[in-house]
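Q: Start with the shorter request: fold the first protein.
A: Done. Sequence, then structure:
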Amino acid sequence: MNPSTDLCNKARPQDQLQDELVRHVVNHAGELSDRIARFRGHCFDDIGAFDALLEAEYGGHARRSVKGNRTYLSFDGTLKVQVQIAERVAFGPELQVARDLVDECLSEWALLHKSVEGFTL
């Protein structure tokens, strides 16, 4: 017995329709995501080939900024392609440990400050 099928048989008709809708939309989203990934790959291949041509012709990195962001314009300036590379920063478990240590120090200092505040000479 398939638990998913058993669950669908017990569901209200409107819930079954909603399930069908969600599965249909997600299926289309998956197909679109695949097409976008292929488009993105083709674009980066074409841009990479163009950059390589410029580098061969003029030497060095002709179009690249420090972070890799680039802009390409059509000859008449009416069309533009921008390549923007987002900077990703990943925080590993080491950073969480460091944060916990800082929080612990701050808590201890706050308690120490509070006890010193109550002490009078």
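Q: Next, the second protein, separately.
A: Sequence, then structure:
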Amino acid sequence: MPATTTPAATPAATPVTAPAAAGRPDGRGQRPLGYWLRHVDDALEQSMARLFAADALSRRDWQVLDTLSRGPADTAALDAALAPFLRPEEASVRPHLEGLAARGWVVLDPDGSAALTERGRAANRRAAAQAAGLRERLTACLTPQELTTLMTLLERLAGHPDTLTEER
């Protein structure tokens, strides 16, 4: 006799229940990919703002802290590492570095390099734990295989952005 599992024992995917999932306002069916990508990113930005509010950190501040947790770096290296996350109005992470330095979490050397202080490492540990919890909650509606598939598909889409600007 085959074994049976209870719903509590098997992680099941939860269907999207947001009102937007019902379709587009024009009644033409499912919303486009760009809508969902923007929706998820905006939700992440807002969730991280609430999550990091106690430390008065922005998502970008945490990304700078987290990047510096791997070792000292100068502004150019940080800008390059975090370029995919910067919004068009953010030309550089320098303002974030300066704000973190003013709080005593980062030391800025005259040669242009930045490094975490002990207080900065402690703040990063707190924020990293909060971000991991958020990531866990965000992906709880997906099975491990669905998450792997989603990440694979998003990486594939991101791997050929030139096709978005090609004229045919």
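Q: Describe the second briefly.
A: The radius of gyration is 20 Å. Residues 21 and 30 are 7 Å apart (CA to CA).
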